[in-house]
Amino acid sequence: MLRLRAFRPSSEKIVKIQLHPTHPWLVTADASDRVSVWNWEHRQIIYELKAGGVDERRLVGAKLEKLAEGELDSKGKPTEAMRGGSVKQVNFYDDDIRFWQLWCNRSAAAEAPSAVNNVTSAFTSLAPSTKGRHFLVICCENKAIFLDLVTMRGRDVLKQELDNKSLLCMEFLCRSTARDGPLVAFGGSDGVIRVLSMITWKLVRRYTGGHKGSISCLMTFMAASGEALLVSGGSDGLLVHWSADHGQDSRELVPKLSLKAHDGGVVAVELSRVIGGAPQLITIGADKALAIWDTISFKELRRIKPVPKLACHSVASWCHPRAPNLDILTCVKDSHIWAIEHPTYSALTRPLCELSSLIPPQVLAPNKKLRVYCMVAHPLQPHLVATGTNIGVIISEFDAMSLPAVAPLPTPSGNREHSAVYVVERELNLLNFQLSNTANLSLGSNGSLSETGKYKGDSAETLHVKQIKKHISTPVPHDSYCVLSVSSSGKYLAIVWPDIPYFSIYKVSDWTIVDSGSARLLAWDTCRDRFAILESALAPRIPIIPKGVSSRKAKEAAAAAAQAAAAAASAASAASVQVRILLDDGTSNILMRSVGSRSEPVIGLHGGALLGVAYRTSRRISPVAATAISTIQSMPLSGFGSSAGSSFSSFDDGFSSQRSPAEAAPQNFQLYSWETFEPVGGLLPQPEWTAWDQTVEYCAFAYQQYIVISSLRPQYRYLGDVAIPYATGAVWHRRQLFVATPTTIECVFVDAGVAAIDIETRRMKEEMRMKEAQARAVVEHGELALITVEGPQTSTQERIKLRPPMLQVVRLASFQHVPSVPPFLTLPKQTKVDDGDLAMPKEMEEKRVSEIAVGGGGVSVAVTRFPSEQKRPVGPLVVVGVRHGVLWLIDRYMCAHALSLSHPGIRCRCLAAYGDAVSAVKWASRLGREHHDDLAQFMLGMGYATEALHLPGISKRLEFDLAMQSNDLKRALQCLLTMSNSRDVGQDGTGLGLNDILNLTAKKENIVDAVQGIVKFAKEFLDLIDAADATAQADIACEALKRLAAAGSVKGALQGYELRGLALRLANHGELTRLSGLVNNLISVGLGREAAFSAAVLGDNALMEKAWQDTGMLAESVLHAHAHGRPTLKNLVQAWNKMLQKGAEHSPSTKTDAAAAFLASLEEPKLTSLADAGKKPTLEILPPGMPSLSALVTSQKKPGPGTQSSQQQASKPLQLEAPPAVISEPATASITATTTATAPENAPSSSMADVEIAPPQSEAGEPHGSVDDKAPIPSSGSNPDLVTSGENAAPTSTGNTESTEVTPQKLDSQGSHITGTVPLSDAFA
């Protein structure tokens, strides 16, 4: 796939460009000497600077910094005020650049057969020199600008400090002494190279005598002998080699070798890595030529003119797996990126891409042509190429998903040497690799502390790899791009050339061809040696339109191209998916000639436990996309193929984020069964690649921004997705998915958990097994086998708890430089560090020293959760997988790399995911105890709760959860007692029982802490009791009940639902004495409701009545006594009525102003005599059927004749009558009552579920409030106007009881009334 990755328009020509290796940064300089740093991933400008002139913002910032630091203004002119002149070169410099520059140089030198051991040995990380700073270095004619992008502080080095000579180019020297720090070499206009120290900012060295003119380019590289060299190209056309090793203190260095390279001057120089050979130098000059030089003999290997009549201005070494024969990229001032095929042989120049077809059409004016002025390939990601043009910066992406042509072979058991097959040109080769060090750190050694204090078992250094390349005599028919894959058994190797198209199947044992034919795509079954291919006829070649031809010939060529494209499309649509199987004798047989009945052309095949087929959807293609596709398809075979199925045939405009999800991911992917060839499930979005577990338990579908992981057994179940963008490939290793991306190596730990479908499937399988056994018994013994004798049956059903799926991502390697902070223990103890910081506190030192002996036996302990990220190899990678505890990778240059998995944090997880939880616990002794909780959570997610309990450093809280998960309730109880500090609470004879807790006159801190601890973990206590009851462990439940009952006796300690749950559990365990004590204690602390509930569970009515009465809940006690016929009913009713009467007489009055009170008093009925004041009756509420309490005491007084029919009889009590239709709370037969006043007998009664007492009105006659219309509350007074108008009094509840309200009785306007709402509460509400 060729697509536009990023584009930044510019009105000026971009003449200088450079990419940062690890950050998505790009620095450019335009024709007006304006320098910009651009984040191409987020499309943001980081920094802009006018380097050619004087940047006013930077000048002001420098002055402000000096003022802030207290520096006085110097007499001289500040360096920021000096004009820089023309920008000659821009670059970044930091620890990442320093590391990867030396890494690439050493890797290129190590390819030579004559490379010395110090080059081929594992590369060690450099000591940090810039300490986290990121420099932007701008080389101008008059000065060099060093700008720190972290602090935004800069330093200008004028040419006066460098012998007053103009600066034309620069290069950073890899090897430098600690005293001088980082060194940068500047090429001067006088032919002298001057070296500047970035620590002292002084000139430390000169290279003289090499050039007669100015120096135009500089580059460092490493020879096969291990010597660091500096090469310079000048305007005199000479290529001069210098020694870059600075062991000697010579101030003047002379050249080692001088060569005549180009006429008119050398423009640029580049280093090219060659597989299996010494590195080569590539130079371009003003004579329009490109020359290739050997770095051992320094002889010229080849000289060509890539583009006639045009001089090359940029050159880059390129190594992309999609174009295995294109090694060099170059640019001239046109709209193409040019590639050179087989530079040392045929040296054919091909256009790699047409840039004008990538950019949006509105950017380029109709009469304006695109011109490229500079180009650079990404040093670590070869699929990215940045170009500077006359309209802006273009970053092109060339098929990031393509992988090297290599396939790993399965390793025989017991063999420590691993193998892989790869193709280079037309040769089939075998790569054997293994760890060269005998004491493999990842195989279980205890490890030790090195002299520097680092843990050797998890060194971030690259492991030593011993590899041997062997040639296989079997020839390969083609040298174009190919894809290698191995069958599930490892017996067969498949090679597909999608651009031809052609495929071959090789038998690994003798490398004979067992099958071949025409196919673009091939996919293997992961269970058997069968494969699917997409058969396709050879499409006609699209002719190349040469430049400078006549219009008639161009039209003819365009017509021929259209016919060829139509023929290719028809051939692609006619292709069908065919399935073949390889038998044991090596013969190939066709199983199915055409899979699927869909008519769309097939564009992808994905192997695995199911066959995945991707179809082309009908989507409208824009004219720009069609132009790009036709341009790429017109390339020759050695470049990118003309077949529609090649990876470069599809086009993306680079702005895919702006498209809708439906358009970005069409539903065009169908899974088929290998057995029946029928579709499985519906259509899915097409993944970039698929990975299936060998045990057919898990699968991963990769998309552009994430990876979807699913479980396959007992049925397909989506587990989740992980945000790993742009993943290129992955390999399963049990429950571990090792993923490679263009910048990182990730490990995803996966577990499906336990779902309801798993339990149901397990039950169904057991039933089927029983039925099958029964059927076999019937066949063998007849119907007598069905006769069973019933006996005592014991249920041994295991409790299977549900567990959610778990996905955890750990980054193993990346391009980022390891920070300078030491990740492991530093021994021996240092009092001061190098930069003069204060020593670490003594307590911290003692803590770290004590952590060394955690494992016992002198085993060193890693103090980090995960290891620091290792260095990812450069370029696209094939993930081989885990072999003997090491993750193996193979890069584009067919070199094997090993990533260590020996850090205890990774090792324990890998072992647990592999299924060896016991070994994981053993390895945990090498991990700091502060990380054991995290490891235990991981093991719990993997289903190893019991094994995780053996980790020595887990916290008590996690230990309790693990013990509950693994049904180790005794250990859970001990953890709970420790966490709550309640070991001595509830024990007899300890002085810490219930009575002692209630009488906390002397506040004992341990008792208070124990109660607080029990309250804090009350839920855990209840869960433990339930778990113990479920498993018949009564002793554990009783121990927990003792503590909980003790805490429940403290007022406000436990919530109401917790107290009720405690009472139920006490009764369930027969703890009647303790339950009775709990009731009394609850009564004493005023928790009447909970006390009554506990007494009800106990079955003691007297105690329940006492609970209601002693806590002031008289309404509940009356109802309870009436329901159960208690002899204390009369006394309870009297006490209740007294309380109600007292509350009615002392109700608060409503606050009103004076005018309102006066007007209200005028409306009140006036008393005619003092006798009328005693007519206000007392409030009396009785249960139904109970005689009046005042009938025998109070004499009736007849009312006056005028008010006989309407006044309330003072001696007539309020009756509570239960209507037959309403029944509530059957446990207590609670009463639904109506109140009846001395109103007329035919007044309607009101149903009451709960009754509230309403206080009487205030003297002013104002109502206290109102409620809704469903149950209006009458006022308790003698104002008929308020009653008639329906105004009501505000309800007040007696106790926390549910209430219902009494409907008022309508009276005459002259009569008085007494109504009220009665509090009736359910005893067990």
UniProtKB/TrEMBL annotation:
Ranges of biased composition (kind: Basic and acidic residues): 1261-1271
UniProt xrefs under InterPro entries: TSET_complex_member, WD40/YVTN_repeat-like_dom_sf, WD40_repeat_dom_sf, WD40_rpt
Native source species: Hevea brasiliensis (Para rubber tree)
Lineage of source species: Eukaryota, Viridiplantae, Streptophyta, Embryophyta, Tracheophyta
PANTHER family noted in UniProt: TRANSDUCIN_WD40 REPEAT-LIKE SUPERFAMILY PROTEIN, TSET COMPLEX MEMBER TSTF
Biased amino acid composition, Polar residues: 1191-1212, 1275-1315
Record-given protein name: Anaphase-promoting complex subunit 4 WD40 domain-containing protein
Disordered: annotated span: 1178-1214, 1255-1325
Transmembrane segments: none
SMART domains: WD40
Superkingdom field: Eukaryota
